[in-house]
Design brief:
Number of strands: 0
Radius of gyration: 19 Å
Helix content: over 70%
Structural class: mainly alpha
Order of helices and strands: HHHHHHHHHHHHHH
Largest sheet: none
Length: 299
C-alpha cells in the first residue's frame, strides 16, 4: 500500500476512534441510570481485555512479570479516572462531561514536571490559562457555584493525566498491546471488587433489556477495544501533532451527539467555554505546529 494512502487511512482511523468515543458519553449517561457505575466498568474493561487477548494471542510470547506490575499500576489509574468520570456524568450533561474530561490534555505537561523535572513551555502555560477560563465558563453557575458532577469529572481528568504519564514511563520497554491487555484486566478487576463490595444490592435489582445489553456491548467492544485498535494504528502512521489534533475532536463529537439527541441546552456562555477548552487542548497538544507548517509551505 502506498504511504500516502496509508497516511490517509491512519487519519481516518483516528477520526473514527474520536467519533466512537464522542458517541459514548450519551450512552454512558443512559446506562448508569440502570446499571451501577462500577458494574458497567467491570463489564467494559474485562470484555475489552478478553477481546484483545483473543485478537493478539501471539503477543503473550513476550510476557513477563513486569506486565503484571505495570499493567496493575496503569490499570488502577485508568479505573479511577473512568470511575470519577462516570460518576460525574450522573450530575452533569454529556457535553460538559466530554469537554471537562479533555482538560487532562492540558494538565499532562504540568503533572509530568513533577516526575521528569521538564518545565512546561510557553504553549503549555498559555493553554492552561485559556483552559481555566473555559472551565469557568462551562462549569460555574450564575452564583459562581459548581456542580458536584463537574468537580468529579475534573478529578477524573487528573487521573487520566496521571495514567498517560504512567503509560509513557512504562511503555518504553513493553509491548503496548500486551500492556493494554493487562491494564484493562487490572481496571476490570478493580471495578469488579468495588461492584461486589458496594453495588451487590443494586445489581440484583437491575432489569436486563435488549437496549441495555446492546449499549453495554457497544461501550465494551466499540468504545474500548475497537477504538483503541484504531488509535494504535492511526498514531503509528500519523505525525504526533496531527494525531493530537484529531484525537482532541473527541470532546467536540461528544457535544455534537449530546445536542443532536437533545441532551444539551446550548447557550452563548457554554459555547464560548467549550471553544476555549478546545483551543487550549489544541495549543497544548500541537504547539500550533500545523500553523507554522502552513506558513513555511507558503514561502
Amino acid at each position: 500500500m502506498k504511504q500516502k494512502n496509508l497516511n490517509l487511512i491512519a487519519k481516518l482511523a483516528l477520526l473514527a476512534a474520536t467519533l466512537i468515543w464522542g458517541s459514548s458519553f450519551i450512552l454512558v449517561k443512559d446506562v448508569v441510570d440502570t446499571l451501577p457505575t462500577c458494574a458497567l466498568l467491570a463489564i467494559r474493561f474485562l470484555s475489552a481485555s478478553v477481546i484483545l487477548s483473543l485478537v493478539f494471542t501471539s503477543r503473550f510470547k513476550g510476557f513477563n512479570k513486569k506486565y503484571l506490575l505495570y499493567g496493575g499500576i496503569t490499570g488502577v489509574l485508568l479505573y479511577t479516572a473512568y470511575m470519577l468520570q462516570t460518576f460525574g456524568i450522573t450530575d452533569t450533561t454529556p457535553g460538559k462531561n466530554a469537554f471537562l474530561t479533555a482538560v487532562y490534555c492540558v494538565m499532562v505537561p504540568f503533572m509530568a514536571w513533577l516526575f521528569n523535572k521538564k518545565r512546561p513551555d510557553k504553549y503549555n502555560i498559555i493553554a492552561a490559562l485559556v483552559c481555566i477560563v473555559g472551565i469557568g465558563m462551562v462549569s460555574l453557575t450564575a452564583d459562581f457555584s459548581i456542580r458536584i458532577g463537574d468537580i468529579l469529572t475534573l478529578c477524573g481528568g487528573v487521573f487520566f493525566a496521571l495514567h498517560i504519564i504512567a503509560v509513557s514511563k512504562f511503555s518504553d520497554n513493553c509491548d503496548p498491546v500486551l500492556l493494554t491487555i493487562f491494564q484493562f484486566a487490572s481496571s476490570g478487576i478493580c471495578a469488579l471488587i468495588c461492584t461486589l463490595i458496594f453495588e451487590r444490592g443494586k445489581i440484583t435489582t437491575v432489569e436486563i433489556s435488549t437496549e441495555l445489553v446492546m449499549s453495554v456491548a457497544y461501550l465494551a467492544v466499540c468504545c474500548t477495544a475497537i477504538a483503541l485498535l484504531f488509535q494504535n494504528f492511526g498514531q503509528k502512521y500519523t505525525d504526533p501533532s496531527t494525531a493530537s489534533l484529531l484525537l482532541s475532536l473527541e470532546s467536540v463529537f461528544g457535544v455534537a451527539f449530546s445536542v443532536a439527541f437533545g441532551r444539551e441546552e446550548m447557550s452563548v456562555k457554554l459555547v464560548i467555554g467549550f471553544a476555549l477548552i478546545f483551543v487550549a487542548v489544541v495549543i497544548s497538544e500541537t504547539k500550533l505546529s500545523f500553523l507554522f507548517k502552513k506558513q513555511a509551505d507558503n514561502k
